[in-house]
Specification:
By secondary structure, the protein is mainly β. 8% of the residues lie in helices and 45% in strands. Strands 10, 11, 12, 14 and 15 form a five-stranded antiparallel sheet that branches. Strand 3 (65-70) and strand 4 (73-74) form a beta hairpin.
């Protein structure tokens, strides 16, 4: 009995002092990341030039020959190149890009990436004012509302089955990805231009495509136009002055790129004639009829429109009329 007790104590001492080793996979600790192919751009559109790069921070490619294969065909002049350029395929097709690594021992490792080119258009609709005869497009101004719509070319996708992440200058809108959100509205941020981006993915998280565009932002400005009771508004803006032979003239102020809501409900809309307020304004706050004071001369006409909640949503301008 005494011998058995001593033997048990000896075993306990042995287990207490003998270290226990466990084999740890380096990949688990991310000390030896796997090889990979990176694409630039990440989500190419059909016919777009693409750069594929072989990434290997661990150095496991060292000493191996590299062969690039696209859709089963070796890429010419690509042997032992860490980077290649090619053109993305058409819509609806899958493009397979492979990098075959071969060691002197004959060991071979294949790295591959599948590309599904998809057209992605972002339609920008600034909700700002331009006159009907203006042939250009309206531009956003700081604080004005912008509507954006993402359209993808592949008819196999439905908006309700996709996740959308919208960003302005890398700031995520609406707190994150939203299912079926292919349209967004937002105020134009401060600055002369900003970047709008969208990333579209499937419900399982697989990224389908992404795109970013740079959008200019301008200050609202006012141009003045003559209005004729017979011919309507002139499409030629008054440059510096206009000579009138009649007793009066009607002038319209057109605030280009002013937010439509501000244009329709201006808090401040004020006409001035030669340093004095002009109150003889009809139903249209943007039109005024100016009459000579009895003698010929110059009349300085100015107009000011502004929103008090969005101070940058406003404009001032003036012109000179000679009677």
């Amino acid at each position: 009995m005494r011998t058995l007790i001593l033997f048990s104590i000896t075993l306990l001492s042995l287990f207490a002092t003998t270290p226990i080793f466990a084999q740890i996979n380096n990949d688990t600790l991310n000390l030896n990341p796997e090889l990979g192919i990176t694409l630039q751009p990440n989500s190419p559109q059909p016919g777009e030039s693409v750069t594929a790069s072989l990434e290997d921070s661990s150095g496991s490619v060292y000493g191996a020959s590299i062969t690039w294969i696209i859709d089963g065909t070796e890429v010419p002049n690509s042997r032992n190149q860490r980077q290649i350029n090619f053109v993305a395929t058409t819509v609806g097709k899958t493009q397979n890009v492979r990098a075959v690594l071969t060691k002197e021992s004959g060991y071979e490792k294949i790295i591959q990436e599948n590309i599904h080119p998809v057209y992605l258009d972002i339609i920008i609709e600034p909700q700002t004012r331009t006159p009907g005869f203006y042939l250009g497009r309206a531009l956003p101004s700081i604080g004005s509302t912008i509507n954006a719509t993402a359209l993808i070319s592949d008819t196999g996708f439905y908006d309700t089955d996709l996740m959308y992440v919208w960003k302005i200058n890398n700031k995520v809108l609406d707190g994150g990805a939203i299912r079926g959100r292919n349209q967004v509205s937002f105020p134009a941020p401060i600055g002369r231009q900003f970047t709008l981006s969208v990333q579209i993915s499937e419900l399982n998280g697989t990224i389908i495509t992404s795109r970013n565009i740079s959008i200019p932002s301008v200050e609202p400005k006012i141009l003045f136009y003559e209005v004729s009771s017979l011919f309507g508004i002139s499409e030629k803006a008054i440059a510096e002055s206009v000579i009138e032979t009649s007793n009066n003239t009607t002038v319209r102020a057109e605030p280009y790129n002013l937010d439509i809501q501000v244009y329709n409900n201006p808090v401040v809309h004020e006409w001035k004639v030669t340093n004095g307020n002009y109150t003889n304004v009809g139903n249209n706050p943007y039109e005024v009829t100016v009459q000579p004071s009895g003698t010929t001369g110059n009349t300085l006409l100015s107009f000011h429109v502004r929103d008090t909640t969005q101070f940058l949503q406003g404009a001032e301008g003036n012109t000179q009329i000679n009677f």
